[in-house]
Amino acid sequence: MTEAIDDYLKTIYELEEDGGRASTASIAKHLEIAPASVTGMLKKLSEKDQPWIAYEKHQGAKLTGRGRKRALEIIRHHRLLEKFLHDSLGYRWDEVHDEAEKLEHAISERFEDRIAEQLGDPIEDPHGHLIPRKDGTIPERSQQGLLELPVGYSALVLCVSDRDPEILRYLSSLGIRPGVGLRLVEKGPFDGPLMLQVGSDEKVHALGVKVCAEIQVTMSTKDGSADD
User: Fold this and answer.
1) Looking at CB atoms within 10 Å, which of 57, 138, 145, 158 has the fewest?
2) What is the pTM of this model?
């Protein structure tokens, strides 16, 4: 198993979770690799005796059962490592992703088990993402993008994308983290900003669409203040 294969499987899993098949272009963008190189790798991953993916030209890729199991194993490593770095070693939530990327391929199953035991078998990483279970399954929960929240409704932040450290630092400065309440006061027209109250603070903050797209929430009530 090479790191490159793991990276492809993890990327395809994440893209499938976002909405269907993973296209060659979306995989190339995510991994910052030329589309032609991605096509070559997808063919290799789909042509093995026990293929990792199903691939059709112009249709993109979809994980097989074997590929999904391996992807979830690597994601478990990654999110446990993020949790360990954050909770036990004092890393900030905007620092853990890159460190976990370097380590996720290298740790043994024994080391994974020791981290999970040390942390009390957590279900979420520092960004609120669910950690796959040891048996290769992942818990289910209802969530939606913050951009889908209707005006006047409150919601709790469930998770925030860990891909952009600058966005994480910005959200942290506003007090926006998993478990914090938000209330949508107003939406600007034509992809304008979302005007939000954070926690019990009555101050209204303007968050652009790019930032809001990185936040997943669970909707709670209408016309109620958001509590953290």
Assistant:
1) 57
2) 0.88
